[in-house]
Amino acid sequence: xxxxxxxxxxxxxxxxxxxxxxxxxxxxxIFGIIGLSGCGKTTLLKIIAGILRPDSGKIYFDDVDVTxxxxxxxxxxxxxxxxxxxxxxxxxENIAYAPxxxxxxxxxxxxxxxxxxxxADLSKSTMPTELSRGMQQKISLARAIASEPNLLLLDEPxxxxxxxxxxxxxxxxxxxxxxxGVTAIYVTHDxxxxxxxxxxxxxxxxxxxIQIGTPEELYYRPVNEYVATFMGxxxxxxxxxxxxxxxxxxxxLILKGSRNIENGRNVKLAIKLDAFIxxxxxxxxxxxxxxxxxxxxxxxxxxxxxxxxKMPSKQVFNVxxxxxxxxxxxxxxxxx
Amino acid sequence: MFSMRHWAYITxxxxxxLIVVPSLIGVVIxxxxxxxxxxxxxxxxxxSVMNSLVVAGLVTIIxxxxxxxxxxxxxxxxxxxxxxxxxxxxxxxxxPTAALGFSVxxxxxxxxxxxxxxxxxxxLVVLLHFTFTHPYIVRTLIGVIRSTxxxxxxxxxSFGIKRAALSRTIYLPMLKAGIIAGALISFARSISETGAxxxxxxxxxxxxxxxxxxxxxxPGSAAFAAVSLLLVSIFIFFIIRRIxxxxxxxxxxxxKIEKMIGLKTAFSINIISLLFFAVMILIPSFxxxxxxxxxxxxDWASLTNSLLLSTIIALAVSIIDLFFGIPLAYYLARADSxxxxxxxxxxxxxxxxxxxxxxxxxxxxxxxxGLNPVIAIAFAHLSFTFPIFVMSYTAAIESxxxxxxxxAQSLGADTIKTYREITLQLTKSxxxxxxxxxxxRSFGETGATISVAEAMAAEIYTLPLLLxxxxxxxxxxxxxxxxxxxxxxxxxxxxxxxxxxxxxAGGKRGKYE
Amino acid sequence: xxxxxEVKNISKRFGNIQALRDVSFDVEKGxxxxxxxxTNAGKSTLLKIIAGILEPDEGEIYIEGENITKTPPxxxxxxxxxxTYALFPHMTVLENVMFGPIHRGLDREEAIxxxxxxxxxxxxxxWEKAYPHELxxxxxxxxxxxxxxxVEPKIILLDEPxxxxxxxxxxxxxxxxxKILKGKTVLWVTHDQEGAMSLADKxxxxxxxxxxxxxxxMELYYKPTSLYVAHFLGEINFxxxxxxxxxxxxxxxxxxxxxxxxxxxxxxxxxxxxxxNNSSPLGRVKELRFVGGFWxxxxxxxxxxxxxxxxxxxxxxxxxxxxxxxDVLVFDYPPEGIRRAVHLE
Lengths: 336, 513, 345
Ligand SMILES: Nc1ncnc2c1ncn2[C@@H]1O[C@H](COP(=O)(O)OP(=O)(O)OP(=O)(O)O)[C@@H](O)[C@H]1O
Ligand SMILES: Nc1ncnc2c1ncn2[C@@H]1O[C@H](COP(=O)(O)OP(=O)(O)OP(=O)(O)O)[C@@H](O)[C@H]1O
Ligand SMILES: [Mg+2]
Ligand SMILES: [Mg+2]
What we know:
The complex is a heterotrimer. Chain A is 25% helix and 38% strand. Chain A is of the alpha+beta class. In chain A, the strands form four sheets. Chain A has a six-stranded mixed sheet with strand order 6-7-8-3-9-10, with helices on both faces. A five-stranded antiparallel sheet of chain A has the order 13-12-11-14-19. In chain A, strands 2-1-4-5 form a four-stranded antiparallel sheet, covered by helices on one side. The two termini of chain A are 42 Å apart. The mean pLDDT of chain A is 91. Chain B has one domain: MetI-like (MetI-like fold, Orthogonal Bundle), CATH 1.10.3720. In chain B, 77% of the residues lie in helices and 0% in strands. Chain B has helices spanning 4-33, 39-76, 80-88, 97-108, 122-147, 153-158, 163-174, 176-192, 195-200, 207-214, 219-245, 256-260, 263-285, 300-334, 338-352, 355-367, 373-398, 402-410, 415-426, 428-444, 447-455, 463-475, 481-506. Chain B starts with a helix and ends in a 7-residue tail after the last helix. Chain C folds into two domains: 3-229, P-loop containing nucleotide triphosphate hydrolases (Rossmann fold, 3-Layer(aba) Sandwich); 236-341, CATH 2.40.50.140. Chain C is built from nine helices and 20 strands. In chain C, the strands form five sheets. In chain C, strands 6-7-8-3-9-10 form a six-stranded mixed sheet, sandwiched between helices. Chain C is globular, with a radius of gyration of 24 Å. The mean pLDDT of chain C is 92. The chains are: A alpha+beta, B mainly alpha, C alpha+beta. At the A-C interface, helix 1, helix 4, helix 5, helix 6 and helix 7 of A face helix 4, helix 5, helix 6, helix 7 and helix 8 of C. The complex binds adenosine-5'-triphosphate (2 copies) and magnesium ion (MG) (2 copies).
């Protein structure tokens, strides 16, 4: 199903939760929404589902205006951020809820298959309140998929799962959604997760959509500093000026950026944390380090300028300086 | 450290010593009388008990059906109709039961402009019982609906599940505690009601009517009936409690009928429940007012005195109920032990004992301490109001997530502070609902009060007793009926005003809006 | 040695589910301890028992040498942030956050001041008067965090405190929490292995109600005590092999080992280098995915599928791989098989 959201607006008192948002989701696409806590993601999903009415704007499903259609009429699978399981039913009945009420014959196989997918080995009598939070989240996901919806709305469906299982489930979930062919809108605050699952991503800020693009586009061609910082949580933002030929000067340092700007112009460089490649020509003193497994987060000093970097842990073991190059592709240039 | 638990234990002792034991003493004494009775006496007694069960069962089932949509509307829609209904809902409970019987009789059977539809007997008893049980179910339900977090409903709706199936699979199971509590109170009230039933029963004998009729002439039969009624009711309560722990409604596919129930049907169900309330409950209860005529007057001094006396008793009783009922309800809602189940079973007893025998029993018990009759009456009222409060409020606490309480404790609040600042705040509207039930019950009670007064040979006129005596006089042609009508009317107005104050104190809205 | 918290042989069961089995560990004063585990492992159960809102079936909890197993929660010098937030729905943000300080004996003024300080810390200044249902999920989580921090207890138990927050805020709050809680003892449950490793003084790995490893993050990552821990802390390739003559071989790399017979070789994806040199074994790129910051490749070399990370985009269909012997881990072959040994429940 194709979804069109046109000029949707919603305010709660003084807070404008969704501010003139428009976008389109293609049939069978997985559309990601990411943004700061409180930026309006959940509100937007609730409007698309019909749980909330927009103050203005329209929602179309396959070119049909559904803005005033009741929630019950939209056939949506919603995975709620706050889980919302039916605590008076068993966990398995929760999953089977929609198929059972519709009287579908194959519901038992469906439930078994979904339990396999979410890796839940539940007894028939287990109640949701007896489950851990992560498990409840998985049940909620399975319940939504089991309802065979026209549109799947997923609000942080894998929150509460550990990073390892999440990294496998994300891909499995993507494969499953693609297999079923259902259109999905996926909200999360985890940029790795959203890059792995979504075909296109919208970045929201304070109720507005700032940029829509593929994961790579957002990463390599952010429209502004905010987007550059957002995909990663941290970013080096530095004032520089252009020397032409894609060369930029910061203090005594001359760096090559991802595009050329007219000589002499002031620019802002957004340098990704993973732009720093070992065995290069700049000498960098390590001022601070945080081990994070495969990578270590570093604060580097290159010619008196401080950079935050993420580098392969083994390259920076037991040394107080490294030689690095900075990948020009990962230096985004903004004009000032 | 004094905690909720200690308080609960003190309350349990209070309950057993001051409420359960006094209510049962009379029954135990009666039991000795029941030793030499014949088979035919037994059969008569049992058939009256059977009658009571049929009436109570029928009334409760129909009541549940019409009350749920009614309570739902009042609790979930915040329009002026809801506010009005919320205001007027408990009105039938202000009519003293004897006057209520008379009013219902006048409306359906014989009286001014009466319908002359139904003559005294089984059906009239059923119609009567609707009037005084309906408010219990509705009130309890409103309290529970307002304190339950029903936000999961959107999940079910998003799957395209429509109203009827939604109610069956989500709403009703989630409100189970409230429905059961309301149904049990209503069942118990119906089983034990004497005063009004007596007026409309005609040749038909419910258990309590049977007991009232035999008490002086054939105490053995009366005692046997009282004891059987008590035992059977306790048994039924036990069974209902057992069943209610289990699954409530099946999770089977949406039926054709359910699918057909759309907005229109829902609307007509609403209309039916509204009509039911108006025609079956409200108008019959206040049909007495039809006797109102211009220039009607009454003995204002007696009326004021009685009004004052009843208000004071009802207030005192409500406050004591709250004081001891809250910790007990909390205990029943949160504990999980054999003692808990036992206490729960015991608390209900005074509600099941027919009011006549209850009154006699209580009069005898408190009289033997040489208590002031007014205080004895207050104690009597405590007995049959306490269970109502506890049952109705327990259901509300059960709908609050215990995790909130635990977190409050880990933040430094002991159990009493936790109750005061978390649980109490979240169940305020349920407390108000329950308090309304208790207050009105005390304010309008006739049967047991008369018995206590008689047993203690005291000339005491609570408002219901005054009205009953006036009705008797009017029936004897000594005073005009308009006197009774105006007195009832004034009672109603004052009662409603007092209720409005109590409800305001509780705050109307639920916490999850 | 200054043990502030000792957990001794705690067990807990719910019906026929054994949520915790004989869990013991110590925490020193001022330590930041992270508990990481799969879902359902018993992490929340453990925190609840330490907070005193759940009773253990067996075992004891000591705080500063004193047995507090039977002490009620409100008398424990412990603050607990539940995973479900459990905000009081009838109280505003400010009232929620003030609740702890007030009940821990502060007067109103002080409590408000303290509450405001922490509300500001979590970035919710200006929201003091809002009710929980008016907040987004992440905002609610921050209120719950502020509420426990405001108690300023000796020991702070955090159950997934930042899981609903965006990366920007998470990174910022992590730093601030570490700063503001300096000197306090923190027991922090998380699903985020990377975050845990970057902050932890000590890492506890649990599995199905048991503790399977305790130690320093780097130690556990590079010298894991079991296949499970190696797998749980980060992606790793496991290859079945046989050791003989004091060696095992992976691709063209020989690694010396004292193990004999069937073994499992572990190599982390970031330790497999893609080289230009064609004398190294050649692999076919089966899958290539951009996973934010780096590329994840699935390479088929000599019939073995290896996951390899690359900072650069790889455009060719074939790559040469090199493994250094010092990066290779060798484990005994687990009797239950690799899959079961590393299964994330
Ligand atoms: N029912 C409501 N009443 C008042 N304000 C609300 C309500 N629901 C949401 N808001 C406000 O709208 C804004 C957006 O909230 P929303 O839940 O959509 O955020 P979000 O992007 O989902 O954030 P998170 O990642 O933290 O879940 C917030 O400022 C929130 O306070
Ligand atoms: N109240 C309860 N009744 C019955 N079983 C329970 C209860 N609480 C927890 N359990 C069970 O105990 C086990 C551990 O649960 P716990 O919540 O501690 O897991 P967890 O490690 O915190 O998981 P998550 O990462 O998903 O939060 C689970 O199997 C769960 O089903
Ligand atoms: Mg949200
Ligand atoms: Mg948990």
